[in-house]
Amino acid sequence: xxxxxxxxxxxxxxxxxxAPAYAQGAEPVVSGGMSWQVAxxxxxxxxxxxxxxxxxxxxxxxxxxxxxxxxxxxxxAGEIRGALILGLVLIESLSIYVLLISLIxxxxxPFKA
Length: 113
Fold this sequence. Notes:
Layout (H helix, E strand, L loop, with lengths): L2 H16 L17 H37 L4 H31 L6
């Protein structure tokens, strides 16, 4: 038996042993927790932060790879540049979609009765 299989089995046993600790108790649920509006604003903020950060990392890696490819083969610079611009547009569009959804959650209040 491989080491990976043993570790996977041990993790499954550990998760199975710990799972009852997270079971819901018999106490009544007290209202007054976080409202849907606050939760949607927090979710939109975190989504926008992750999208902007990871989009910037992706764009940085794409530009670095394109610069390295052009340095290795300068005659293919036009094709590499076209593929780079297309990739950057697609990466940026994902961040813009998240911004749009965040603005909808901030200002349009989709939780109206």
